[in-house]
Amino acid sequence: MFGPLQTVIKPAFREMLISGRLESDDRSQVTCIIADGILGFTIDVAEELGIPSIAFRTVSACCIWIYFCLPRLVENNDLPFKDEELDRSVTSVPEMEGFLRCRDLPSFCRANELDDPGLEFVKTETFNSTRSTAQILNTFDDIEAPIISQLRSYWPNLYTIGPLHALLKTVRGVSSSAKVSSNGLWQEDRSCMSWLDLQPPKSVVYVSFGSLTMVSREQWLEFWYGLINCGKRFLWVRRPDSFIHNEDDCQIPAELTEGTKQRGYMVEWAPQEEVLVHPAVGGFLTHSGWNSTLESMVAGVPMICWPHFADQQINSRYVSEVWKIGMDMKDTCDRTTVEKLVRDMMDDRKKELTAATSKVSEQARRSIAEGGSSYCNFKALLEFLRTTTTSSGI
């Protein structure tokens, strides 16, 4: 993972910048690099060219803080851990001592060896990011304040400007319910919006596992049975490449087909931001990706979390134990659990979850409104760019 970045991509990136190919009559030379925070080679190139670099980490602040704490986790013998230790408490991450378990650590921490390439990569690139001129996080102060405070000891020039999808609307001066352009790789099937228009308020469970998660046939059927057995309406996004199957897998049990005709709707991709703010949606069964988590927060929709990799494990723990805006079913996939949690979200715990999600939604919306923390941080970031970038350097 690290080798090709240094030996192939870094030289090509450097050559692209110094060659002048990015310049045109209406576009001057590059005076600043904003790059994904795991692409540390961009910092090297920026330093060589004498221009500032800004690291943008797309995961949650709580995940990054665990990455910074990896040496402490090793020293405390929290890493590596065995499969039978998944529920063992982890107390060596400040601000998380009371609720963190081995199973809640980011997926890279499940490596069997400390020299695992994936674990080494996130550790190296996380500490390497401290060399950037500044850092950007897609989060907001109210929701991750204690963790953001810890991160500032490594990143003193940190700008928290999330939720970005909501801030974008503020900057553009459009309403929170306005249609937005899609940045997805799949064609949206907007027929689901017409279907939602026909459903009662807060009656639909929205199901989507993002753009990368793969689901086995067995898992797929367990979720399907759970959704049918709970008796709730559901809108399920199932990418064509989201599950592994062969010709023998094509037979679908009749009760699932019939149950879906009665209460369900399936599409290959959906306009998620619009779906989550639709009056008919009452809950979100999600993979706990950070973008999906933030979108659900802004919409005020409770979550059932089924995380897979990277920051999703710790995101789901924060959803259930810290923010208390949903439930965590990580490392579990059976129809009984799915049925129970959906009923809990839509019925038994509805009042409790509605109160918590409404509070978080208000905090998120306040942060991106004019004068809010993320709004002000964004303005400060723009001013930083104006004062630190120059036309000299390349």
UniProtKB/TrEMBL annotation:
Is the keyword Glycosyltransferase in the record?
yes
Keyword rRNA processing annotated: no
> What's an example of a GO molecular-function annotation for this chain?
quercetin 7-O-glucosyltransferase activity
- Read off the PANTHER family from this record: GLUCOSYL/GLUCURONOSYL TRANSFERASES, GLYCOSYLTRANSFERASE
Which Pfam families does the UniProt record give?
Answer: UDPGT (PF00201)
InterPro entries given in the database record: UDP_glucos_trans, UDP_glycos_trans_CS
Give the family this protein belongs to, as stated in its UniProt record: Belongs to the UDP-glycosyltransferase family.
Where would one find the signal peptide in this protein? none
Protein's name according to its UniProt entry: Glycosyltransferase
Q: Which UniProt keywords apply?
A: Glycosyltransferase, Transferase
